[in-house]
Write a structure and sequence with these properties.
2 copies of one chain form a homodimer. By secondary structure, chain A is of the alpha+beta class. Chain A is built from 7 helices and 4 strands, in the order H-H-H-H-E-H-H-E-E-E-H. A 4-stranded antiparallel sheet of chain A has the order 1-4-2-3, with helices on both faces. In chain A, a hairpin with a 2-residue loop joins strand 2 and strand 3. In chain A, helix 1 packs antiparallel against helix 2, helix 1 packs parallel to helix 3 and helix 2 runs antiparallel to helix 3. The N terminus of chain A is likely disordered.
């Protein structure tokens, strides 16, 4: 995902549109709460961008569904897909409502971030140090989530945000990572990101 | 979480109700898609149970918010919390719409589970073998998510479902785990759950 890679085109098939809508509906809720926790207008804008994209996807999936229904059975199956698509879009609208709170002055919503930080899985941020072993490696090759249990929700490089970054995304020094997981997992990840610990190497079992 | 532990009471404070609503809104979306993937009426019922609970929580948080607003500033802050609560409840309604699809005959929604399995992070299930090293240990003490990157969305023991099980939940032989994560993480977890591999032991750094 990540709209930085010019992926503003709508996927071609009903199936691919719905897959994107499902994935977005899962990440957008995390992202909306993260925007509140970090009081981040930029993350809120990402949520709003996704919300608008979900509108477009919903419109397109409806058209494609109608054009591809040839029999009653097709139509019944497609109606089910449209129901999921509508629900995914409703989730993104709710996420948009959450970030709308950031429009208000921060003194009118002061204790919100504090208690959101108390959930079991916390949303935190860290910056990749120049000397970190994670620099110039991809998220997938490191297996960040398998190794630390921390999920990278979003990444900020310079002024650019990428949400739900792809496994083939190569990290750079100075990247700001927004991550979600337990306190323990965060401490492990922080030790790698700061360069205090080297990323573990395992014996290679099979090629690739 | 998990309503099996008699936790049907509504938390006492606005803050605690909202924390539960936020946590539920994050897990219910996963759970709804999982119910479709596994064509599971029981998981769908869990989603519906959570959806009803969210209604009750929303009603209660509104009452408590009104009773606790003493000044204009209180009211402004509480209005923000209610906005988040409403959004969380809207998310749970959308999750309910997703599982409503299971009401239809399965031949009217056949390719839905198949392509949901193609998302980057997959939802899968596995059963804990008698001889698995994970039996009789808690999710937290093993650090299942840190170790494998797999998140346990739900657990079925006998006829009972627990969603988003707590870290202090002790696993038993025969437990069915519904997990979410990458293919690699799943293979690692499966090798532990089957008893083919022992759960790794690390030198203890500090007490507790």
């Amino acid at each position: 995902m990540g709209h930085e890679d010019g992926k503003d085109k709508v996927p071609r098939t009903v199936r691919d549109i719905l897959t994107e809508m499902k994935d977005t509906s899962e990440v957008i809720v995390d992202l909306a709460y993260a925007a509140l926790v970090f009081d981040s207008q930029e993350m809120a804008e990402e949520v709003q961008h996704l919300e608008r994209r979900m509108d477009i996807l919903l419109y397109n999936i409806r058209i494609k569904a109608m054009l591809s229904a040839r029999t009653k059975r097709d139509a019944e199956q497609l109606a089910g897909l449209l129901q999921v698509a509508s629900a995914a879009e409703a989730i993104s609208n709710a996420a948009g409502d959450i970030v709308n709170l950031l429009k208000y002055d921060s003194d009118k919503r002061p204790f919100l971030p504090i208690f959101l930080k108390e959930a079991e899985e916390k949303i935190k941020s860290l910056t990749l140090a120049e000397k970190s072993d994670m620099v110039n490696r991809t998220i997938g090759e490191m297996g960040v989530e398998s190794e630390t249990g921390m999920r990278i929700i979003a990444l900020k490089r310079g002024k650019r945000w990428m949400y739900d970054p792809e496994p083939n995304n190569r990290l750079k020094a100075g990247d700001l990572l927004i991550v979600r997981g337990t306190d323990n997992g965060f401490e492990v990840l922080r030790s790698f990101a700061s360069g205090d610990r080297l990323w573990p190497q395992y014996p290679v079992k099979e090629a690739g």
